[in-house]
Design goal:
This protein has 449 residues and is mainly alpha-helical. The chain has 14 helices and no strands.
Length: 449
């Protein structure tokens, strides 16, 4: 069901919209960690290292898909908030066409360049073949990744966070079952993990895309609808390109960091692979909730209701901090138990690496979550230069410090220390940018504005 986020008590509206997003987060992360979980438990530590190593490369492709998602979602939200339904449909069609071209280019680049990239990041020989095989299969499924992201972006733009949740719930649980079937019953190894993801992504993409077009058919329009609009493409690109650059630079930075980590051997690689998946579960949770804040902000900007943005920021902070507390406590005090879900008979090096990583990062979840909520408002309001400045500051600090500290007496532990420093400085920037926005002199009304 489509939901107008511009009316009603802001905190109630935002929380009602974001709760299904949180459910989607859990299933999305279940989807993401299933490959590593099955590889580590049913194949072995080298397979876990291979999948984890490949994961950093797949994040580059996901960066482009995420950018298309955000560009489409924010612009459709603004048109929906302004009740310009013909432009809503044109924006969706335009985003689909542009994403198809971009996806084809990325597939070609991926097939030609992934092997060289794996060599560039010092992938150990014992993990190289598995990493390359996983990536080759993953690239064939890129169209599913792109169009699924477009579909979920449209649903969020229309205020519907429940439908994506239902799709993810089915596809993620199916992915685990198919992962285990292919690896244990068919003895397909790393290839089984990759093919399971391919099949489940394909089914969820087809269903989600079909549901989007059925939803669009039900929206009555009185203004003209086009299959492609250069003007709307430019509007989408203004949001999408900075989002793509943000995620791409983060992915490239993570690959650089992965290259440094690979120099410490497969034990550290495996421990990092398990721990970073747990950390990404948290960061992606915050990011997805921040995306909900972006949709809320964009609809209210489209409806010219700036006073509701400040109340949305306050509600978003409450939501992410309620999530931060239990996750911080779990990872800091019981991280070694959670890590064993991924590691079957882990080496001392792998387990120690994962525990140190989680204990260093988890207390700073309160800081990075506040940054991401502020980023959500900056992106939803189109303040992309401020958004990029804070994001790139975080990334550059993390990469530079990771490389430098890895060569000190701290060793691999020094790499993990770079995360909190980058998060803290960037959070200060993002919150200051938010505070200087056009809504600063408006009252943060808790009632319908």
């Amino acid at each position: 069901m489509n939901q107008d986020l511009t009316v009603g008590r802001p905190e109630t509206v935002l929380w009602k919209f974001c709760l299904p997003l949180f459910g989607s987060i859990l299933f999305q992360q279940l989807y993401n960690i299933a490959d590593s979980l099955v590889a580590g438990k049913f194949i072995g530590e080298t397979a876990l290292a291979s999948v984890g190593n490949s994961y950093e490369v797949t994040l580059i492709f996901l960066a482009f898909a995420f950018g298309c998602n955000m560009g489409c979602s924010v612009i459709v939200s603004q048109f929906f908030g302004a009740k310009e339904y013909g432009k809503v449909k044109t924006a969706v069609y335009t985003a689909c066409a542009a994403s198809a071209v971009l996806c084809a280019a990325l597939m070609l680049g991926g097939f030609l360049g992934c092997g060289g990239l794996l060599r560039l990041i010092n992938t150990p020989e014992e993990a190289f073949a598995g990493s390359k095989l996983y990536l080759d299969i993953y690239i064939w499924g890129l169209p599913f990744v792109f169009f699924y992201n477009i579909a979920t972006g449209v649903f969020s733009a229309l205020g519907d966070s429940r439908t994506p949740f239902l799709f993810l719930a089915v596809s993620s649980t199916s992915n685990i079952a198919v992962d285990i079937l292919f690896v244990t019953a068919f003895d397909m190894g790393v290839a089984g993990v990759a093919w399971a993801t391919f099949l489940c992504q394909g089914v969820s993409c087809v269903l989600a895309t079909a549901a989007v077009f059925l939803r669009l058919r039900r929206i009555e329009t009185h203004d003209p609808v086009s299959l492609f609009s250069p003007l709307i493409l430019r509007k989408i690109a203004v949001i999408a390109i900075p989002s793509i650059l943000q995620q791409s630079f983060i992915s490239v930075g993570n690959i650089v960091i992965q290259g440094v980590i690979n120099g410490f051997g497969t034990g550290v690689m495996a421990g990092y692979s398990a721990a970073v998946k747990l950390n990404n579960l948290v960061i992606t949770s915050f990011t997805t909730l921040a995306n909900g804040v972006s949709n809320y902000t964009a609809q209210n900007i489209g409806a010219q209701k700036l006073s509701r943005v400040k109340a949305g920021f306050r509600a978003g902070i409450k939501l992410v901090w309620m999530l931060s507390l239990p996750l911080c406590l779990l990872y800091f005090f019981a991280g070694h138990f959670v890590l064993r879900l991924f590691l079957n008979q882990p080496t001392e090096s792998a387990l120690r690496t994962g525990v140190y990583f989680l204990r260093i990062l988890s207390p700073f979840y309160f800081i990075v979550s506040a940054k991401l909520v502020a980023d959500g408002i900056l992106r939803g309001s189109g303040r992309m230069l401020h958004f990029m400045a804070a994001t790139f500051t975080d990334l550059i600090l993390r990469v530079v410090l990771a490389v430098l500290l890895a060569h000190t007496a701290l060793g691999s532990t020094g790499i993990w220390c770079s995360w909190p420093i980058g998060w803290t400085i960037a959070a200060v920037m993002s919150v200051r940018f938010y505070a200087s926005g056009p809504w600063k002199n408006t009252a943060a009304s808790e009632e319908d504005a």
